[in-house]
Design brief:
Layout (H helix, E strand, L loop, with lengths): L21 H60 L1 H4 L7 E4 L2 E7 L2 E5 L3 H11 L13 H6 L1 H4 L5 E5 L2 E7 L10
Antiparallel strand pairs: 1-2, 2-5, 3-4
Length: 180
């Protein structure tokens, strides 16, 4: 029966000589310190260079960001003025232009409490609407969002949307890979 070699290969020993005295060990410690300080200097230089590059790139990007914001506002004004036509009289909340897509995205509804929480809790309890109260006796806004019509009957509670966001999504295409 053939025997296989199961021993692990050793990593080669360092080419540097092992210190043979306290003085040599002290010199090695000093050299490690020098190397660590040099590494710290190089790291600081690298961080300075990165900070300079970042500042330069941010400065160059500022007018581009400004133009994106301005063009988005101009697109929004155009699309708002033509919203009925673009959305088929409100049937959809997006429009596909040849160069990309715009959309109106509704933010999720939110509950706004106009009075103090303890006052609204008293009203909820008086109306027997305990599904709007959590065990720790706070207003359950999630439950109010689930039953907005009933929640709106409570004085001091209103259910409203946080609005909508206007989004511009240009189409992007990747280069085709070369056939091999």
């Amino acid at each position: 029966m053939a025997r296989t070699n199961t021993s692990k290969t050793k990593t080669p020993a360092s080419a540097l000589p092992v210190p043979q005295s306290d003085a040599a060990a002290s010199e090695a410690v000093a050299r490690v310190g020098e190397l660590q300080r040099e590494l710290a200097r190089r790291e600081a230089d690298m961080n300075d260079a990165l900070a300079a590059i970042k500042a330069e790139c941010e400065e160059a990007a500022a007018p581009l960001k400004r133009e994106v914001a301005e063009r988005t506002q101009a697109l929004k004004a155009y699309c708002e003025a033509n919203r009925d036509r673009l959305t088929g009289s409100g049937k959809v909340k997006f429009y596909d232009f040849p160069a990309g897509k715009i959309a109106w995205r509704a933010r999720p509804p939110k509950v706004t409490l106009r009075d103090k929480v303890d006052v609204i809790l008293t009203r909820i309890k008086a109306l027997g609407l305990m599904q709007f109260v959590r065990v720790k006796h706070e207003v359950d806004k999630e439950a109010m969002l689930a039953e907005p019509d009933l929640a709106a009957t409570i004085t001091g509670v209103s259910i409203g949307s946080a609005g909508e966001d206007f989004v511009v999504e240009p189409f992007e295409a990747a280069l085709a890979e070369a056939a091999s």
